[in-house]
Design brief:
Layout (H helix, E strand, L loop, with lengths): L1 H20 L4 H4 L15 H8 L3 H10 L5 E3 L6 E3 H12 L5 H8 L3 H4 L1
Antiparallel strand pairs: 1-2
Length: 115
Amino acid sequence: METALLESRIRFMTLFKLILDEWEDLNDLLPSGSPECVNLDTLSDDTWLQQFRFTRSEVSTLVEALDLPDVVECPQSGIKEDRVTALCMLLRRLAYPNRLVELEMQFGQEASRIS
């Protein structure tokens, strides 16, 4: 059982790092006048559930259960995100249906950073 959990966590972290690897530094990508990214703290639980398929408290539980570091860094690109934002980006990317343009607007980042 522990081996299966460890293998699952390794697969998750590998996927997580692949997604982070595709993103570049936000300041270099965003043109001036780009929309501000969403403040996760201001979203209602209904919005969290709709956008990420988990409530805020469930995401917090996932962050702890996955034992994510405080800052998630992609070793290849050096991009850093706090653990909650990084997990939310992954969850939103995996939620169906979604389009990159929606993610661009939600996180204030270009599609090439998210895809």
